[in-house]
Amino acid sequence: MAENQRDIENPGDDGGNEAQGPYHQIICKAAKRGDWESAKQILDINVKYACDRITKGGDRALHIAAAGKHSEFVKQLVMRLNPEDMELKNDRGCTAFCYAVVSGVVANAKVMIIKNRNLSTIRAYDDMIPIHQAALLGHKEMVSFLCTVTPFQELIYQERIELLEATIRNDMYDEALNFFHKDRRLASARLKGNRSMLNLLARKLQALTTEKQEGVWRKFVGSTSALFSTPLQNSTQEQSSPTSCKARKLLEEMWEEYSNLTEKFAHLIRPQQILHCAAKEGNDQFLDMILHTNPDLLWELNEKRQSILHVAVLHRQEKVVRLICNIHGYKDFITLLEDKDRNNVLHLAAMTQTTFCRDNNENPLPDEQLTQRAKEQEKIMPQSLLRLSTAALQFDREISWFKDMENMMPPSLCDMLNDDDRTPKQLFSKEHMSLKIEGEKSIRDTAKSCMLVATLIATVTFSAIFTVPGGNHHEGAGAKKKTVFTVSDAVAMIYSMVSIVNFLSILILRYTEDNFHVALKRLFMGLAALGVSIAGMLVAFTAAFFLVYNKALVPILIAVFSGVPVALFWFLNTKLWFESTASMFRNLYRFIQQ
User: Fold this and answer.
1) Single pTM value for the model
2) What is the sign, positive or negative, of the torsion defined by CA atoms of 532, 538, 540, 542?
3) Which of 25, 30, 104, 149 has the smallest C-beta neighbourhood within 10 Å, fewest atoms?
4) Apex 423 CA angle, 421 and 428, nearest 5
5) In angstroms, how far is CA 138 from the centroid of its own chain?
6) CB 226 within 8 Å of CB 153
């Protein structure tokens, strides 16, 4: 009993080791569960138990409760502690306030900061300030709160850079604007990899634009866009989200500060190739803002002597190309530029990602070198092209891109030779040979499989038309059901024959770059006709049950379930329908323009 009394009166006399007494174990378990009543019974005896180390890592009760997000426990415990008790650290150099910040519970952080205002500037074991920890973890509300209690002037310049970078990466643009307004020198700060803050922000703005989910109709309209804008597309332009608007505002203010550094401007822009990176990623909003005030930057060349337009064409960035072509007085001059390999704009439009998968002697690279080269060289085809469902659609999109560029550029570029003595057309044929073969194979294989199904449907429906269920004599409602059966069966047979003709024409078609879209159009028409024939066959099947069972429950159930195969056929091929339709619209629009 006396031993227990001594333990209660002197809870901190454990030589710096974690407390092992029964009271410490009760507090530890209570803090983990958020059971304040159990902890209160011990702390009422001696409140100093709250300051004892109760884990091997040196955590106190407040550390454990804050990490467990137990707000009521933290609130009651803080009321019993002195301000200096809040600054106690564990073996990792973290205060309980750091745990509250990392957990993201603003209420716990507020309770602690009211008790001790110095907690916001006490650094953890890695010398990281609490607000930086919250920003790295993406706790937006916590960062907003800590902005009001953390003295910005006490942060060194490197900490300010890291803090601004963390807020931008986690889309906290209100806080980022706040930090930037307090220190506008951050516009010219350098990040890891010798990148600038402006470069990071430009990439984030593009990510916010591309990550926003679109509806099915918007995806379809967007997929039909090439280098032209139509009223249909303009009517479906997406409104910018609040987050992207704030990011754009920060970008504009940062660019304004950036461009004011006249003595460093060229040295900051050229080595980082910010504009070329934006063109490669399709960041038309950033380029629009920059080129609107500095159109002369269109003449900036990268190490390959390629302009922004060349990079945009190379990476199939339609919006960027359209933006540059709408800047009057510049396009006609820039299109005449050649890179260090004497490739003009059309040569770049003819290239694919396989360009970097060969050595100088046109031999394929070994797997080891190919893997290394893939890490060193950026792939050309954008993700929007690689997401197409078949190689045939990819090849058709490449043909459309090349033809669009041909229509936009001066005719003299079409016959120019590069260092390999190839015209753009010859380079296109060479670069896309493997994709063309793969696309042709996918179309033929699909046509063969579908033609087999269409033949089976035609055979079955042809024989069924002469064997009406229940006999040939029906009156009243039976006559109507017989009519439905006959018409639907005839529709199924006729459309199956239509699909057979389309698929057969695909098999005998000679595939060239100029008529490749014809094969896709016939494939789409064949699939549509096959879908109609399947629907007609199932309607005839359902009508036959009504003729046999009359008003029984069986034909009703059969009618319900017969719609499942038709729905599956259209649903499972939805992506193919939209992509094929988009391809047809693109070619139709080009034909109308010509």
Assistant:
1) 0.68
2) negative
3) 25
4) 115
5) 19
6) no
Q: In terms of pLDDT, which residue wins out, 209 or 413? A: 413
Contact 124, 156 (CB under 8 A): no
Residue with tokens 């006959």: 486
Indicate the DSSP class of residue 55: S
321: tokens are 């190309």
Inter-residue long-range contacts of 415-424, CB under 8 Å, 24+ positions, other chains counted: 416/342, 416/344, 416/346, 416/347, 417/342, 418/338, 418/341, 418/342, 418/343, 418/344, 418/347, 419/341, 419/342, 420/341, 422/347, 424/344, 424/346, 424/347, 424/349, 424/350
pLDDT digits (tens, 9 = 90+) for 34-55: 999 998 888 888 888 888 888 8
Residue 192 burial (CB count, 10 A): 7
The pair of structure tokens assigned to 314 is 């190379």
Sequence-distant (6+) residues with CB within 8 A of 34 are 65, 68, 70, 72, 73
Residue 98 to residue 101: CA distance in whole angstroms? 5
Q: Are 105 and 140 in contact (CB under 8 A)?
A: no
Q: Note whether 96 and 58 are within 8 A (CB).
A: no
HSE-CB at 496 with a 13 A cutoff on CA atoms is 23
How far apart CA 565 and CA 557 sit, in angstroms, is: 14
Burial class (CB in 10 A: 0-12, 13-18, 19+), 294: middle
The average pLDDT across 313-340 equals 84
Kindly give, in sequence order, each residue whose CB lies less than 8 Å from that of residue 265, ignoring residues fewer than 6 positions away.
258, 259
Q: Which domains does the chain have, with CATH numbers?
A: 2-150 (1.25.40.20), 445-593 (no CATH)
Give the model's confidence band at 32: pLDDT under 50 very low, under 70 low, under 90 confident, else very high. very high
Distance from C-alpha of 69 to C-alpha of 34, rounded to nearest angstrom: 8
For residue 238, which of 219, 257, 252 has the smallest C-alpha distance? Answer: 219
